[in-house]
Design a protein that fits this description.
348 residues, Enolase-like, domain 1, 17 strands, 32% helix
Amino acid sequence: MPDLDVIIARALAPDDLLGLEFHFLDAVAARETPPVLLIHASPGRSVSIGRYHLYCGPPERDGINVTRRLTGGRVVGAGQGWLGLALILPTRTALLKEDVTRLKPEQIMNRYVRGILTAMRALGVECFYPGRDAITFEQREIAMCTFETDAAGAMLFEASIAHNRGMEELVHDLERIDPDGALSCRMYDAASATKVVRELARDISFDELADAIASGYRSSLGETRRRELSALETAQAQHRGRALANSNWLRRPVAASMTLRNRIASQLGAIEAAIALNADRTIEAARLSGDFIANSPAIAELESELRGRTLDLPSISHAVTKMFGHDGNFFLGAGELSNLVRLIAGVN
């Protein structure tokens, strides 16, 4: 059996992508299929928001679609001009050819971006991964990455690669679909962002770029098998994607009762905490949002753990340390855990 199945999908609808990722997370965790590398593109122009961004706007405006990933992280480009990558593994250290016993969560992306770096260098673009969530060429961002682990421990690693549209175009798309500026994004220009066609000084087809990436992951992760989506996988993608869309997945509001807010600048952008208090000043409900990368079961559990606690440093510190004070769960983007504690405890 190969170490990794490679599937290339040239025109995968955003809802189908989400449904397919959900299906593969379950199938790979149950060992019903080998780990999967899905290299994909979607029709139309899109903005991809992270799992934890607040958004209550329309799914489309001025010809630009908004999609919400299963993973956290920053707002990035999607659709036309972007190549997407989804690596689904039964655990976050599967296929790594090293001693993983001391591998910390923040080192995971360092390992799984290597296939992209190998591919880009083979094409002649000497990219680097300096850390956090960006892949760069001469300090200009050319790709972003993020990851999620589900309750069964299966991992979804995602990357968005600027093929022939980049973060400088994303800024203008955001102004059109989010004129009120609810979604945070730094300003990009040609000095801070780039794309593959610019650095190659030539056009490159989706197929050529996808083939290079498939080869890069074969070099870094082991034997691969190229195949098409099965009829079952296609049906699951459509069924689960439709169900997710009908569940109002795109919208993530904050309840009107959460009147206490605090916001901090973070390593990836900004993170916000919103809290509603009971009459006795204990926490009734809490919500974290913004530009961070975390495993979603831990975020749900932390928000539940905060309910009923007093809004003070010792109590909040205990809840945060209980959830993220070990390597099983992860919260990336805030720096030290004490920053997350102060964010939540500092709402007013």
